[in-house]
Amino acid sequence: GVMSMTGEPDGPPEYVGNYFGDPNAGIHGALGICAASFSRTMTGEGQYIDVSQLESLLYLDYINFPLYLMSHGEIRPHRFGGDFFNICPYGVYQAKKGYIAFAVAEHQWPPLVKAMGMPELATDPRYGTQVARCARRPEVRKYIEDWLQTFADDETPLQILYGARIPVAPV
């Protein structure tokens, strides 16, 4: 289940922290009603709607099931902590006053490190690709968190990153 995939890799499963089963099934039900209403408008016939809470929850784990199934079990998903398993940086980072969430795609790495005043990291082979950054995730985290600590507040680095079109947000 979701809890088995939540938490640090070497730690126990963690509580997800919010109720999402019922609302998620409700959203799927509402979408089913919209689709049925559209179908009735187009065909004049009604629809039977059947929403399973379990099936609705499977959608929320859209990475692990396909990885496991499409690899015929060779890829065995596991907990990967607060960072996304194959994108770096992608997670929550300590700023001066609070936390900032980063979601940096491959093409956004050069503008990120340029905004941080470290453009050389864009071409450094240790950090130049997602694969390389994921292999050195603690080092990438340190660069970012050290940079965030140089500001007296969290708003200034956010504005710099917004200006560089880096997807970040305060937590």
Q: Can I get a quick summary?
A:
The protein has 171 residues and is mainly α. Helix content is 42%, strand content 8%.
Share in helix: 40-55%
Query: Are there runs of 5+ residues with pLDDT below 50, and where?
Result: none
Count of individual beta strands: 3
Alpha plus pi helix count:
7
- Overall 3D shape: elongated
Biggest sheet strand order reads 1-2-3
Percentage of β-strand residues: 5-15%
Note the run of SSEs as H and E: HHHEEHHHHE
Radius of gyration: 21 Å
Description:
With 171 residues, this protein is mainly alpha-helical. Helices cover 42% and strands 8% of the residues. It has helices at 21-43, 53-60, 64-70, 109-115, 130-135, 137-148, 155-163, and strands at residues 90-94, 99-103, 168-170. A three-stranded antiparallel beta sheet has the order 1-2-3, with helices on one face. Strand 1 (90-94) and strand 2 form a beta hairpin. Helix 1 crosses helix 2 (53-60). The longest helix is centred in the N-terminal third of the chain and has 23 residues, at 21-43. The relative contact order is 0.12. The model has no long low-confidence stretch (mean pLDDT 92).
